[in-house]
Amino acid sequence: MAALKIRVNPDPVLREKAKRVTAIDKSIHRLIDNMIETLHTASGVGLAANQVGVPLRVIVIHVPDEEVLALINPEIIEKKGERLVMEGCLSIPGYHAELKRAECVKVKAKNREGKLIRIKAEDLLGQALEHEIDHLNGVLYIDYLDSEDQLQKVEPE
Ligand code: CO
């Protein structure tokens, strides 16, 4: 496994609509393993393949104390409710902002074995699923802000 370089806004690959994966082969498994390594190296919660320069519909999510999720061709099939969350992105380092996300999302996807799975999620996992699936559509969280003034600098710990 190897950590990959994370592309930073305004890299044009972040604005590409990622393509569906047609065959879950060794190269997809290698991509997933490298994305997980990259996510852990960056201490992030989620990562989409286009953030490492690969415009394919693959995401990985690691919510603290939960198992790592690797999803292929994920799709949001239902969203319910609205809530305010604080959100950041590894491709927009040093900033975060408050925005609205759903209270609950339902997602269908394939796992790394190619099995169709459905996930119902709230809280940080729901937020991460929305955020990473947005990435696959070329959407960044800053697109939801009315103005760049809403971006807040993250204070170094
Ligand atoms: Co992001």
Structural write-up:
The protein contains two helices and eight strands; from the N terminus they run αβββββββαβ. It is α+β, with helices and mostly antiparallel strands. It has a single domain, classed as Peptide deformylase (Peptide Deformylase, Alpha-Beta Complex). The strands form two sheets. The chain has a five-stranded antiparallel sheet. Strands 4-5-8 form a three-stranded antiparallel sheet. β4 and β5 (95-101) form a beta hairpin. The longest helix is centred in the first third of the chain and has 16 residues, at 26-41. The two termini are 29 Å apart. The relative contact order is 0.20. It binds cobalt (II) ion.
| Rounded mean pLDDT score | 97
Superfamily (CATH H level) name: Peptide deformylase
Low-pLDDT residue spans = none
**CATH fold label:** Peptide Deformylase
Number of strands: 8
Give a short account of the largest sheet.
5 strands, antiparallel
CATH class: Alpha Beta
Structural domain count? 1
Strand content: 25-35%
Shape: globular
Named once each, the bound ligands are: cobalt (II) ion
Global Rg: 15 Å
Structure classification: alpha+beta
Strand order of the largest sheet: 1-2-3-6-7
| SSE order, one letter for each helix or strand | HEEEEEEEHE
CATH architecture: Alpha-Beta Complex
Helicity range: 10-25%
Number of helices, counting only DSSP H or I runs of 4 residues or more = 2
* N-end to C-end Cα span: 29 Å
